[in-house]
Amino acid sequence: MSEIKTIGILTSGGDAPGMNAAIRSVTRAAIFNGLKVKGIYRGYRGLITNEIVDFHTENVSNIIQRGGTILKTARCKEFQTPEGRQLAYDVARSHGIDAIVVIGGDGSLTGARIFANEFDFPMIGLPGTIDNDLYGTDATIGYDTALNTIMECADKIRDTATSHERLFFIEVMGRDAGFLALNGAIAAGAEAAIIPEISTQVDQLADLIQNGFRKSKSSSIVLVAESPVTGGAMGLAQRVKNEYPGYDVRVSILGHLQRGGSPTAKDRILASRMGSAAIDAILDDQRNVMIGIKNDEITYVPFTKAIKNDKPINPELLATLRKLSI
Ligand code: ADP
After folding, report:
1. How far is the CA of 77 from the CAs of 32, 45, 108, 224, in angstroms?
2. Ligand 1 site: residues with CB under 6 angstroms?
3. Cβ-count burial of 11 within 10 angstroms (0-12 exposed, 13-18 middle, 19+ buried)?
4. Which whole number is the average pLDDT over 256-270?
C-alpha cells in the first residue's frame, strides 16, 4: 500500500491547451482514491514562494474546455539551484505534500527528475507541450490542438496565397522538433515542411526549389519550424530573395496563437487519461516517471528516457508529404 496521502499538482514552462483538462483529471482521480490535493500556482516558483491552496472537486469544475492553465505557469531560475530546491522541498513538506504531479515540457521534467533524486521525493510527469518532443509517448498534451490551429491558419493563408500566386512560408513552433511543421503541412495540403531534424543533413530549400517545386502552381505553402537550425521563415524568405529572385515570397509567423484555444476532443481525452494514470502510478509506488500513451496504452517512461532520447520523425510522413505535393 502506498504511504502517500497528499499530492501536489503544478504546471510549468510553456503552457499548452489541455493542461486544464489534466489538472481536472489529476485532482478528481486523486480525490476518487481518497487522496488530498494541493494546487501549486506558477510552477516551481509557487513551490518556493508558497502559493499553494487546497484543491477540491469544485476547484476544477468548468475548466476542461478552457485553454491555458488555471494554475498559471512560470519559469523559475531559483529552482535550478540546490538552495532553491531545498526551499521548495521544505515548503512542500510543510503542506504535507508527499508526491507531486508536474505537467510541462522537457525543462519541467528535467527539474522534476533532479528534485526527485535529490530528496528521494516521488515526482510524476505529464507531457504538456504543443511541440510533441517528448520521447516515449505518441502525443503530448496540447499538440493536437496546436496542429488544428496551424491547419486552420494555413487554410486561410492559402486563400490569399492563391489569389496573388505567391510562395508563403508559414513559421510554426518547434525549436528542436518538426512534428507541428510536418503534420501541419500534411493536414493543410502544403508543398513542404522545413524541419530541424532534416536541416543538418540537406539544404531543404535548395532541394525544394530545384527538385520538383513547380513555379507553375498558383501558390505554394511551406511550413517552417521556428528553429535556428532551419533559419526560420524570415531567414528562408531572405534566401529566396537573394538566390531565387523569380519568386514572390511572403512570410507569416503564427507565434503564440498556436498555444491558445479550447483543447480538441483528442487533447481533452489524452489529458484525462494521463491525469488519471498519474494517480494510478502514484498508488502503484511508481516514481520519477512520465506518463505516456503508446499504441493507445498507458506507459510509464523514466524521466531520463523521456528527456534525453530524441523522438524520431516518422520517415513515412516525410515521404507522404513529398508524394502529395507534386
Ligand atoms: P518546458 O517545461 O516547457 O520545457 P522550461 O525549459 O522553461 O519549459 O522549464 C520550465 C522550468 O523547469 C524552468 O523555469 C525551471 O524552473 C525548471 N527547470 C528546467 N531545467 C531545469 C534544470 N536543469 N534543473 C532544475 N530545474 C529546471
Report:
1. 35, 8, 12, 30
2. 12-14, 44, 75-76, 79-80, 104-108, 110-111, 114, 129
3. buried
4. 97
Q: If you take atom 7 of ligand 1, which residue's CA is the nearest one? A: 13
From the candidates 15, 98, 106, 131, which is the catalytic residue?
131
pTM listed for this prediction = 0.95
CA 5 to ligand 1 center in whole angstroms: 27
Query: What's the mean pLDDT in 202-221?
Result: 73
The pLDDT of residue 258:
97
CA distance 91 to 85: 10
**DSSP string over 255-321:** GGGGG-SPPPHHHHHHHHHHHHHHHHHHHTT--SEEEEEETTEEEEEEHHHHHHSPPPP-HHHHHHH
Per-residue b or e along 39-59, where b marks 16 or more CB atoms closer than 10 Å to that residue's CB: bbbbbbbbbbbebbeebeeeb
